[in-house]
Specification:
The complex is a heterodimer of chains A (197) and B (206). By secondary structure, chain A is α/β, with parallel strands linked by helices. Chain A is built from six helices and seven strands, in the order αβααββββββααα. Chain A has helices spanning 2-25, 47-51, 55-63, 131-136, 141-156, 185-195, and strands spanning 42-45, 76-77, 82-83, 86-87, 89-94, 101-108, 124-130. In chain A, the strands form two sheets. Chain A has a five-stranded mixed β-sheet with strand order 2-1-5-7-6. A two-stranded antiparallel sheet of chain A has the order 3-4. Chain A is globular, with a radius of gyration of 20 Å. In chain A, α3 (55-63) crosses α5 (141-156). By secondary structure, chain B is an alpha+beta fold. Chain B folds into two domains: 1-34; 37-203, OB fold (Dihydrolipoamide Acetyltransferase, E2P), CATH 2.40.50.120. Helix content of chain B is 28%, strand content 34%. Residues 178-183 of chain B have low confidence and may be disordered. The chains are: A alpha/beta (197), B alpha+beta (206). At the A-B interface, β5, β6, α4 and α5 of A face β1, β2, β5, β9 and β10 of B.
Chain lengths: 197, 206
């Protein structure tokens, strides 16, 4: 009886440990929703991007997600906001009243209705980079490329903020620190989790 | 006889009008109290991990309570010329109990008697015919009737706004754990609780 009890306790302890470890290692930091047409799409830049010389940041930001998954990218710039009847993602440079906010991603349906990416999929999206706050906080070029452009494009590819130990505040999708890097192993793992290899 | 029929008609019509008015008012109240859909936009922002970093970076730290219900506050949205949502925020009037940090010169028109007005990264908009609450990175509004310590920074546009999203305002009565997806993560909730403990220790329990 005692032996059976011991085996029983050991089995469930091991099971609990396995669940704990796997939930830490395989934590999912992606949205439930995603772009309905997949992760190969066109992007369009508003004149504000060229007027503020942000095209270089966005070019690198979107290209940083290429060659990670065969299902993702290339995200191709096109001067038309609609290609083959499909809306491109739209990039802007603007200003915000919210202190410290550097950029945001707004996922929408074709009729312009915004949706919550944590719950629903979308047809296209807009990305805003907030130059007034970027300038106020004195971000370097590397930080704008990583923490603003690459980070926001990451959201448009269904990646959410990564609070996990595998990121440890040092991956592009962290919300807790400014970074100057391209997507690292953890960012790539999350992208493949969402879209496949 | 005619007068009796006329007065009966009058009563019937009045009763019908009264019933219709009641139904109309009922639906109006129901519509007004309907819970609005919440849309949570992911954002990139300057983040602070501790009370000391937050206190150092804030221009104003204030203890107090919102002056009115969230839905009654001024909700703003800024549209780009092509209609895209360029910016949004709520202007919140906040009754000051005590300043915990205050610069010598404060922006004019932001403080009036015992009230300070600042912005929160959340708003209510017309989302293609449906009213919806939109929020940056899971930010939850300051609740009416609750007391908070709020960390504010000059936004460079003549106003002050809450910094560090949900980790820039702390409810004195309860440890608010966001129900919104982005901050539904345990790590984010733990972070909020940790900074809140540090804030209360420094400003309330010392």
């Amino acid at each position: 009886m005692k032996k059976k009890q011991k085996i029983f306790i050991s089995f469930f302890s091991l099971l609990a440990l396995f669940i704990l470890i796997s939930s830490t290692i395989f934590a999912d930091y992606t949205f439930l929703g995603k772009r309905n047409s997949g992760a190969k799409f066109y992007v369009w830049y508003d004149t504000s991007v060229f007027n503020n010389s942000y095209e270089g940041y966005f070019n690198t930001g979107k290209n940083n997600w290429n060659n990670i998954s065969s299902k993702v990218g290339p995200l191709t710039y096109n001067q038309n906001s609609e290609v083959n009847g499909k809306k491109s993602d739209r990039y802007y440079v603007g200003s915000t009243t919210n202190s410290g906010v550097l950029g945001y991603f707004n996922p929408m349906l074709n009729n312009g209705t915004s949706v919550n990416p944590f719950e629903s999929s979308w047809d296209y999206g807009s990305i805003y980079a907030y130059k007034n706050q970027i300038d106020l906080y004195g971000l370097t070029s590397a930080q704008i490329t990583s923490s603003v452009a690459t980070h926001e494009v990451g959201h448009s590819l269904s990646l959410s903020h990564n609070f996990g130990s595998a990121c440890n505040n040092n991956c592009v999708m962290t919300a807790n620190a400014l970074t100057s890097i391209a997507p690292n192993t953890e960012d790539k793992t999350q992208l493949k989790n969402k879209w496949g290899n | 006889m005619k007068t009796q029929i006329g007065s009966k008609m009058k009563y019937t019509v009045s009763a019908i009008v009264l019933i219709l008015a009641c139904i109309f008012i009922f639906f109006l109240i129901k519509l007004n109290n309907q819970e609005l859909k919440v849309i949570n936009f992911p954002a990139s922002y300057i983040s602070y991990d501790s009370e000391s970093d937050l206190s150092k970076s804030a221009d104003i730290i204030v203890l107090g309570t919102p002056a009115e219900e969230f839905q009654s506050r001024k909700h703003q949205e800024v549209r780009h010329e092509d209609g895209s949502l360029a910016d949004f925020y709520t202007l919140t009037d906040f009754k000051i109990e005590k300043f915990l940090k205050k610069p010598e010169i404060v922006h004019p028109n932001t403080i009036n008697d015992d009230t300070i007005t600042f912005t929160e990264p959340i708003s209510i908009i017309d989302n293609n015919g449906e009213r919806a609450i939109i929020s940056l990175d899971g930010y939850q509004e300051l609740e009416y009737g609750e007391n908070y310590i709020v960390f504010l920074k000059d936004n460079g546009m003549g106003n002050y706004s809450v910094i560090n999203m949900n980790e820039g305002k702390f409810n004195l009565q309860k440890d608010e754990i966001s129900q919104l997806s982005s901050h539904g993560d345990k790590e984010a909730s733990d972070r909020h609780s940790q900074i809140r403990r540090e804030v209360l220790k420094r400003y309330i329990n010392n």
